[in-house]
Structure formats: C-alpha cells, structure tokens
C-alpha cells in the first residue's frame, strides 16, 4: 500500500524511531551553515502542518553535546524553554499571502510550570465516521482571514486545501551562554495521544559578535535527512532565513528553511 499521503516511508538506511540527534551534521560542498542568533534578541520561527491534530506547541534549546546525541534529552530542553514575543502570529497561506492573527499563549497548567505554550490556531475538521469521515466543518471558528482553503485535517491540494505556515516570534534569553545549540520544537496534540518534534542546529553569539561569527562560519547546518511525517519546521533569523533542509528527531519531522529572498515552497 502506498503510504505517501499520510507521511511516506523512511528514506533508505533509516528506520522509524531513529534518533535524529544522533545523526552526523550535514557536510560537503553547498551545505548551509546553521543560523546565528544573538543572546537577548527576538527571532522568527515557523512550522507547517501536514496532519492537523490540534493542541499546542513550544520551542526550547539544548546545548549541542560534544560527545554525541545521547545527552539531548527532554530534561535538557525543559531547562531552556523559550518565550513567545508579542500578541500576534502570522499565517502564510497557500497562495503566499500573509495574515496576522491574535496569538493564544497558555501558561496555566503547563509543564514546566508557568512556561509558555502556543495554541495551534488552525482548526481541524469535525468528522462523521458514519459518513465516511466527511468533513462537517471546522472544530472551532478559523482565525479571521483564514478561509475554507486554510483549515482542515490535512493538506489536500486536489480540493484546494493548503494548511498555512505558522510564524511566531521567540525571545532568546540575554543570559544564554554563547555556543552551539539544538533548537527543539515540540507539539503536544489534542486530537490524538501524540507528541511530535523537530530540531535544528543553531549558534548563539554574544551581542556584537554576529559578524565575527558569520565570517568564520564554516560549519554545516542541520542533520542528515531522516524519516519525515506530520509537520515541518522553518528556522528564521532576525535579518534573514538561512537555506537548506535538515532532519528529524525521534518522531520523524523534517526541517525546512530558506533565504528570505527566495522563500521556500512548502
């Protein structure tokens, strides 16, 4: 059976459940460098939905271990839970247009206590199993500006549905030590008992060191592409978005990013 529509199959040499944190960094001619972020700055990040399970998500950081990926743990990410900035977020619709909507940040009942999680703003379908899982409408009112093509349970280009890219601003702590980090994105679903995750390599520098870091950068960004399904993550800098595709964590997500001048087709 062709399982491509709901997520596809692992690429050759990979298995579902492989630890993306254990994959070697991308290398070779043309490999992009990781984004460089400044401590105390605000950066843009975004993600897209392939299968909509509701719920909420968060961004965290974990220092890149020098001795391999085994030290990349949930506890490590929980120690550096990032906060969202502002009261709005942006949807990039399938036709390329942008819509600013009110952000719904939750801090009550979150874990670690008081940390910020963002509600997934895109409603999935109300499904009636008796009618063969026919969509009966959105589970809650779509955000203003999100028409009938930008909500639903999954992308379906045959009927014109294209779930939007969700863009947020996050704060990089001013007391964060410079160095190499893994940016972890975690999505706790509501419609299913699932947790989805993606990760990307980033470099944190002290204020005033941005150009120095970029001049000496020769490090590959991201990790070798592994199994992908469910969603994708875009890593954006304050000034621009760096290009390239990285890999997944244990739940099999892919990472998408691009230069701002030639924004990725997702």
Structural description of this entry:
The protein has about 270 residues and is mostly beta strands. About 5% of the residues lie in helices and about 30% in strands. It contains two helices and 16 strands. The strands form three sheets. Strands 2, 4, 5, 6, 11, 14, 15 and 16 form an eight-stranded mixed sheet that branches. Strands 1-13-12-3-8-7 form a six-stranded mixed sheet. Strands 9-10 form a two-stranded antiparallel ribbon. A hairpin with a 5-residue loop joins β9 and β10. The radius of gyration is 18 Å and the shape is globular.
List the helices and strands and how they pair.
Elements: E1 36-38, E2 42-49, E3 56-63, H1 74-78, E4 83-84, E5 88-92, E6 98-102, E7 105-106, E8 117-119, E9 125-128, E10 134-138, E11 165-171, E12 179-188, E13 195-205, H2 210-216, E14 231-235, E15 244-246, E16 254-257
Parallel strand pairs: 1-13, 14-16
Antiparallel strand pairs: 2-11, 2-14, 3-8, 3-12, 4-11, 5-6, 5-11, 7-8, 9-10, 12-13, 15-16
**Which regions have little confidence, pLDDT < 50, spanning 5+ residues?**
218-229, 236-266
Beta-sheet strand percentage? 25-35%
DSSP summary: helix tally:
2
Shape: globular
Q: Assembly state here?
A: single chain
Mean pLDDT: 76
Separation of termini? Answer: 25 Å
Structural class: mainly beta
Order of helices and strands: EEEHEEEEEEEEEEHEEE
Measured as a percent range, the helix fraction is under 10%
């Amino acid at each position: 059976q062709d399982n491509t529509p709901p997520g596809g199959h692992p690429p050759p040499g990979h298995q579902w459940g492989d630890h993306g944190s254990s994959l070697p960094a991308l290398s070779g001619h043309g490999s992009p460098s990781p984004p460089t972020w400044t401590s105390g700055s605000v950066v843009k990040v975004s993600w897209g939905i392939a299968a909509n399970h509701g719920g909420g998500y968060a961004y965290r950081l974990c220092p890149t271990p020098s001795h391999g990926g085994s030290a990349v743990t949930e506890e490590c990410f929980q120690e550096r839970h990032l906060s969202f900035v502002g009261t709005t977020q942006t949807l990039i619709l399938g036709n390329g247009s942008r819509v600013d909507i009110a952000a719904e940040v939750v801090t009550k009942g979150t874990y670690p206590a008081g940390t910020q999680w963002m509600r997934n703003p895109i409603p999935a379908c109300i499904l009636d199993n008796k009618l063969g899982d026919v969509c009966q409408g959105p589970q809650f009112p779509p955000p203003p500006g999100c028409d009938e093509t930008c909500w639903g349970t999954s992308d379906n280009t045959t009927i014109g549905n294209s779930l939007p890219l969700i863009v947020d601003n996050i704060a990089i702590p001013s007391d964060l030590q410079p160095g190499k980090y893994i940016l972890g994105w975690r999505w706790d679903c509501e419609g299913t008992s699932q947790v989805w995750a993606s990760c990307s390599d980033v470099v944190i520098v002290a204020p005033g060191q941005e150009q120095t870091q970029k001049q000496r950068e020769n490090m590959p960004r991201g990790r070798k592409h592994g199994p992908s399904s469910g969603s994708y993550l875009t890593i954006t800098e304050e000034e621009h978005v760096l290009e390239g595709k990285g890999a997944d964590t244990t739940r099999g997500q892919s990472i998408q990013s691009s230069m701002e001048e030639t924004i990725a087709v997702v």
